[in-house]
Amino acid sequence: MAEPLKTIIVGAGHRSLIYASLAEIKPEKMQITGLVEPNELRRKAVCSRFGIPEERCFESVEELIKVPKFADAAINGTMDSIHVSTTIPLLKAGYDVLLEKPFAVNEKEARQLYDSAKKYGRKVMICFVLRYAPFYREIKEKILAGEIGDIINIQLSEFVSYHHMSTSHVRGKWRNSDQCGASMLLAKCCHDLDIMMWLMGGDMPVSISSFGCNKQFVKENAPENSGTRCMLDCPYVDSCLYSAKRLYIDHPDRWSFYVWADLEDKGEATLENKIRALKTDSPYGVCVYKNDNNVVDHQSVLVNFASGATGTHNMIGGASRGCRRIHITGTKGEIFGTCEDGEFTLLKIDPTPGNEYSSEIIDTEVKGDSHGGGDLLLAEDFADYVSGATPSVSCTSLEDSMKGHLAVFLADESRENGGRVMELKI
Questions:
Q1: The pTM is what?
Q2: CA distances from residue 124 to 90, 121, 328, 364 in whole angstroms, order as listed
Q3: DSSP helix/strand/coil, 326
Q4: In terms of domains, do 248 and 189 share one?
Q5: What is the rounded distance in angstroms from the CA atom of residue 348 to the CA atom of residue 78?
Q6: How far apart are CA 70 and CA 52, in angstroms?
Q7: How distant, in Å, are the alpha carbons of 3, 78, 365 from that of 300?
Q8: Residues 405, 350: one domain?
Q9: Structural domain tally of the chain?
Q10: Is the dihedral of CA 381, 387, 389, 393 positive or negative?
Q11: What is the per-residue pLDDT across 4-41, written as a single tens digit (0 to 9) for each?
């Protein structure tokens, strides 16, 4: 790249700012030149952080597109339900877009976005950061090299920790699909279905079935005589696994970018500010068993591929440890491992005398990162992709990201219809 990619942040949330930090770490790759953010406090803070002039800070996409184009691309990190409605005007105005997942909340929107990108000749990349995690990237390389032969079966599992599940999907932004527009599978596991489709390469998914429900976080499971707000009227505030006090006061930095977001106007929020919020109007203070959440806490998906190979994905919420696991069986060997451990095992059939198989552990040297070290690698690849470089093997172009989203939509439709087999058409 001769010059850094001039980029506008659209929606200055947690994820957008992670990708935008590439401009601070590798300024030769990206430069932040504009901002769209309706929250005044956040808008001022981000403009100050990146040195964005006031005349290039806007409250809405509508305001942005009224001025002549002044950047190359945009990072769109708005909420799921408005991804498409905010991205299409950006495409029309001439901006390429790095779009947070899920890129659409239903099939109609997905196809509308796809058609718009084609119509306006713009590039769209989706923030499927797991493709860039060295753990999955190295697995992909092993498959492409033929190390395990043709894939017979691929199994993926995501174990959503009890504190992540309760924070994001029982109390938080993604607790109610009617409000956020996204199901649990779409909001949390579109990553995993994308990984499955990416690793399967050109083997197309043809049919899908799925089951799941909310088993844990229902009123029937609330302890006897429990309250409605943990820190206001509940006798189990010091003993419940999901006590807001235990999750958010005793661990004040865990999920702080979600839990304390409404206290931004306080500057450095005090302990008293936080306790008052949990006792009064914060959704994070409500009992997990007496909430308005309507998303599943576990779901299983079965995929049949054109070659006859099969795939499964299991999402289990409320696990003691949050992690993603994978096991792929091919005609010549197997690959299995846990992303957060940063290593996987490669087994290969070995019929020579005295042997059964060979075993090798591949250490990717990235441990304990929920996205496996992929965040900034994705942002850098986006800068290269927009600038005309050859896409990497991980490239999450909109065209290559459709299969995973369509699989999620059909899996949810199947679940809602008792596991009925759904036919997938790209």
A1: 0.92
A2: 11, 10, 30, 28
A3: strand
A4: no
A5: 44
A6: 12
A7: 46, 28, 30
A8: yes
A9: 3
A10: positive
A11: 999 999 999 989 999 999 999 999 999 999 999 999 99
